[in-house]
Amino acid sequence: ADNVVQMRVAYGLDDGVNNGSVAYVAAYTACDGVVDRFVDAATFNALPAVPPLPNCVAPKTVWQTKWESVIAVRVAVVARSALAEKPSGIDGTKCDATTDGTEAPTPGPDLRPRWVGGLIDVSASGDPSPASPLYWKCYRYRVFETTVPLRNWIWRSS
User: Fold this and answer.
1) Cβ-based neighbour number of residue 34 at 10 Å
2) Burial of 104 (0-12, 13-18, 19+ CB in 10 A)
3) Number of domains, the chain
4) Does any domain span residue 60?
5) What is the per-residue pLDDT across 17-52, written as a single tens digit (0 to 9) for each?
6) What is the value of pTM for the model shown?
């Protein structure tokens, strides 16, 4: 699709581990049908083989056990404006539609897109040259995100 610059995915695990990404859970208990934490794909792939957990269905193989703990998927899509904003400043060369808080001499606010999983780096989404009118800071960005519960997996033990 035009002007979609990035997509992020995080897996919601029901494994009883609290990594701080889910604040609304009263008790972090494995296999209770409630997301205990969200992890990105790299973290998920690096997880060790998970032994069968109490309250879970019959023992599974390593991959089945790891994937069975996924009960939700969080997805974010980052889109940018179709047209670059006109540069501001006295000489008309400074793009500041999206700032990262490191501008000199006076740092502006950090206006890079964020989602519930954190900051999204869009600096590679345009021309890397600050002198270019297509520099990434010349665009406005918007994040669309949703969390999809994997209902059949939530109900799997009933």
Assistant:
1) 19
2) exposed
3) 1
4) yes
5) 888 888 887 888 777 788 989 999 999 988 876 655
6) 0.76
* Contact (Cβ atoms closer than 8 angstroms) between residue 67 and residue 44: no
Helices marked H in the chain:
41-46, 62-68, 151-154
Q: For residue 25, is it within any domain?
A: yes
Q: 36 lies in which domain range?
A: 4-76+146-154
Show the tokens assigned to 94.
């400074």
Q: Which two tokens stand for residue 91?
A: 């000489």
Structure tokens that stand for 139 in this block: 């665009």
Average pLDDT of the residues in 93-108: 72
Q: How far apart are CA 96 and CA 107, in angstroms?
A: 11
Among 87, 115, 135, 83, CA closest to 9: 115
